[in-house]
Amino acid sequence: MAISSEDGSGRELWRRDDLRQLTNPAATDDGRVLVAVRADGSASDGGADGESDDDESGNEPAGEPGIAIHLLDGASGETLHRILVPAAHGPVSGLSVDSDGRIVLTTGLGAVYLFD
User: Fold this and answer.
1) pLDDT for 111
2) For residue 66, what are the CA distances in angstroms to 3, 25, 36, 90, 99?
């Protein structure tokens, strides 16, 4: 959900109930929003862009959904891009983006993923 505070009203700009968010979102310098979500191959991960939810071997760990990072338009909430995190599962402990656009995701299982 995005809330506008420009006019002091705190009105809702948009809401994405279809994404199963795993951590706090991260904002980019250009007003876009990154969010780590559960990627289980169903519509609940917002994965309608045609990308597969399988890891590089073509399989997810049995019974464990994966993780995807969505880049959202900060004004509309629309998914602009989706990155499937290869072989990632379990809880997410952090998500950040630096001023050069590099994305780092860490999991509670000790994995660190860096995307340039």
Assistant:
1) 95
2) 28, 18, 10, 8, 27
**Is pLDDT above 60 for 42?**
no
Say how many CA atoms lie within 13 Å of 38 toward its Cβ.
Answer: 15
| Amino acid symbol at 19 | L
Residue 61 token pair = 């760990």
Q: What is the pLDDT of residue 8?
A: 81
Is the CB of residue 76 less than 8 Å from the CB of residue 62?
A: no
Full-model pTM: 0.77
Render the burial of 30-45: b for 16+ CB within 10 Å, e for the rest. eebbbbbbbbbeeeeb
More confident position, 55 or 37: 37
8 A C-beta contact, residue 62 and residue 31: no
Q: How far, in Å, CA of 37 to CA of 12, rounded?
A: 21
